Amino acid sequence: MDRLRSEWANTSARSRVILGVVLGVALVVLALSVTGVIDMAPVQTGVTQIKK
């Protein structure tokens, strides 16, 4: 149990880094899909609706 508690104490900083990386990757994927580099159906339909 003590080991788990110390792990939880360490996860706050580690999870922030992981969250940052995940958010960064998500933003990159979104940017690529919006610019048309990656074709994603829901994003593409949203963009085409805005253009119309």
Which helices and strands, and how do they pair?
Layout: H1 2-35, H2 41-51
Keywords: Plasmid
How would you sum up this structure in a few lines?
Keywords: Plasmid. The protein is mainly α and 52 residues long.
List keywords for this structure.
87% helix, single chain, mainly alpha, plasmid
Explain how this protein is built.
Keywords: Plasmid. The chain has helices at residues 2-35, 41-51. It is mainly alpha-helical and 52 residues long. It has one domain (2-51). It is rod-shaped and about 50 Å long.
Strand content range: under 5%
| Class from secondary-structure proportions | mainly alpha
Biggest sheet record: none
Oligomeric grouping of the chains: single chain
Based on DSSP secondary structure assignment, what is the total number of beta strands?
A: 0
Cα-atom radius of gyration:
18 Å
- Which spans of ≥5 residues are poorly predicted at pLDDT below 50? none
Order of helices and strands: HH
Give the helix tally.
2
What's the N-to-C terminus distance?
A: 58 Å
How many domains comprise the coordinates?
A: 1
The level of helicity is: over 70%
What integer is the average pLDDT? Answer: 73
The global form is: rod-shaped
Keywords: Plasmid
